[in-house]
Amino acid sequence: MHFYSFMRLSRTLRPLRPLRWITAAVLALSLTLPALAGHGDTDKAHKGILLVAFGTTVPAARAAFDNIEEEVRKAFPGVEIRWAYSARQVRSTVKENEGTTKLSPAAALAKMGDEGFTHVAVQSLQTIPGSEYSDLLKTVEAFRDMPKGTRTVTLGDAMLTSPADMERAATALVSSFPAERKPADAIVLMGHGTHHPANIYYPGLQYYLSKVDPNVYVGTVEGVPSLEDVITSLKARKSRTVWLMPLMSVAGDHARNDMAGPEPDSWKSILEKQGFIVHAILKGTGEYDTLTAIWVDHLKQAFNELDN
Ligand code: CO
To answer: Among residues 119, 192, 254, 298, which one is catalytic?
Structure first.
């Protein structure tokens, strides 16, 4: 726009005498330069972080989010941290129950753009790169081309993405078990599971876990391996005591009801009915610093990419 107005201005200046022309050119430049300096591309960088979780309607489960935020704050002192919940149902239930507004990833990114954030590193707090992650990637990509919005938006990987992540998570998971757990006791991790091809990460993690501790099993609520698959393994190994633990960022609805709830169809009830002694741990992976560190490292990578 500035270029065209300058062209139009210089065309009308052609008949002027040299001294007047120089005066006019200096005047035109002095008017144009501050306008160019105020243009978005020369603005000072203002970097921010957006943490994206599925969300939870269980207030006590947010201890995991508080811990994640604390770890992120330690790694990025002075950088503003925002949150978004990707689940619409969770957002509306939280609004209904607590009167609190949680933003979607798109709403949070739009708001940050309006507030003048020039660079935003988004961190996915998903466990695997499934449909929640690929939806978030699409949202991030859409905001990369947003006129007058944030200039640069990057996305940090889900917890389990590379083979190195899997190895690290397996070691961190095994070391997070309570001291009361005896080596003969089995540990059953409850993952969410999905119809998305990334469900393969659950049996994939099983491979890495088995190398660290042969008494740890991964099961899922909605995918493979199922609880039946896990029970087959427990029986083959003649396990008697089972520790249940969620393989999700928070110990929310799935952990409290599907895993450890009193209903006859919870994993705890089903296992007890089969004769196992069951202990349930109601802590999400976000409550363990060694596991949270994997997300924080992925965020560090996304944050560094802001300068590329
Ligand atoms: Co679910």
So the answer is: 192
Which pair of structure tokens corresponds to residue 3? 């270029």
Dist. CA 160 → ligand 1 center (Å): 18
Q: How far is the CA of 81 from the centre of ligand 1 (A)?
A: 26
- Residue 24's CB: how many other CB atoms inside 10 A? 15
Say which amino acid occupies 24. A
pLDDT digit string (tens) for 232-258? 999 999 999 999 999 999 999 999 999
* 209 backbone dihedrals φ, ψ, rounded to 5°: -65, -45
User: Is residue 196 annotated as a catalytic residue, yes or no?
Assistant: no
Whether the CB-CB separation of 13 and 86 falls below 8 Å is answered with no
> Using N-to-C axis directions, what is the helix angle for 163-175 and 201-212, rounded to 10°?
50
Q: What is the pLDDT of residues 62-107, one digit of tens each?
A: 999 999 999 999 999 999 999 999 999 999 999 999 999 999 999 9
Q: Over pLDDT 90: what percentage of the chain?
A: 84
Expressed in angstroms and rounded, the spacing between residue 259 Cα and the centre of ligand 1 is: 12
